Amino acid sequence: MPDMPTPPDVTVEILSGLTARQKTLPAKLFYDEAGCALFERITRLPEYYVTRAENALLARHAGEIAEKAPIGAALVEYGAADESKAVSLLDAGTRAFTAYAPVDIAPGALAAIVARMRISHPAIPVLPLVADFLQPLSLPASFSDKAAFGFFPGSTIGNFRPEAVHRFLGHVRDTLSGQAAPMLVVGTDLRKDESVLVPAYDDAEGVTAQFNLNILSHVNAIAGADFDLAGFRHRALWNAHEGRMEMHLESLSAQTVTVSGTRIAFRRGETIHTEDSYKHTREGFLALAQGAGWRSGGFWTDPDGLFGMHLLLG
Ligand code: AVI
């Protein structure tokens, strides 16, 4: 389970989101223990093609991608919830990588990666870095003799607004430029028809609805709130203007909820915006990356052209 900042900070963030004109909750609050388990189930749903498409891409192209890394590089994975995607590159590029550095805010997830890797890949040193990768980051001194090959799979970048993508890509460029020319491989879900996108975020079994509603249970637990989950319903909509899927929780009636002693009024039909999932075209994402000082070094897709992986050169 990802570790959260201290509760008072989160409560301030929650209250500021719930008192804005368009109510919001921070998407990081999806991932308590129940939320992580629900997300696991989402990745196996027939409608949610994203994870399968990325795995198919890696099954086909991991060798070519790994070959782009300088020999002896450390593979630095941002937001490493588990090592499965990094392992595709490590196994495909045994000549290339001499270390694996998963970066995440959750020490528990990193410890579990270290333990599994010790058994599955004993020859590859694992150098975990507990850090909020959205903030500027420096690699430890043990990296000074290695080139670093950045890896950000999973389309997590799709959950960032364009300003945040710009900031993140700028930080990564600064972090990785210490040793040699920076390189970053980043996975992005590609733009596609609404008829495919909406069911991916509103599946027939209702798992995504449970995932979305679970954020309210998490807020109840950490911010002394009294959300009644039965008073809200899951909504998933395609925002064509912004090029993103949005998840909302819609209030089924006029109601008042108390959060950490503050009363928050909801109109019937009013929503809490809980998540954005941008679907970037190849060109659109490259333009964002170029704005942050990167250029293209390669691009791969899965056989169905659903998911893309960019190699960015700094
Ligand atoms: C984690 N992230 C890439 C997922 C996505 O597709 O944006 C989160 C998710 N939300 C609903 N379903 C999956």
TrEMBL record:
Enzyme Commission number: 2.1.1.44
Keyword Chloroplast: no
Molecular-function annotations in GO: L-histidine N(alpha)-methyltransferase activity
InterPro entries hit by this protein: EgtD, EgtD_Methyltrsf_superfamily, MeTrfase_dom, MeTrfase_EgtD-like, SAM-dependent_MTases_sf
A Pfam family of this chain: Methyltransf_33
Keywords attached to this entry: Methyltransferase, Transferase
Domain Histidine-specific methyltransferase SAM-dependent: 13-312
Keyword Methyltransferase: yes
Domain of life: Bacteria
One GO biological process term: methylation
NCBIfam families in the record: egtD_ergothio
PANTHER family: ERGOTHIONEINE BIOSYNTHESIS PROTEIN 1 (PTHR43397)
Listed name of the protein: L-histidine N(Alpha)-methyltransferase
Native species: Endosaccharibacter trunci
Gene name of the encoded protein: egtD
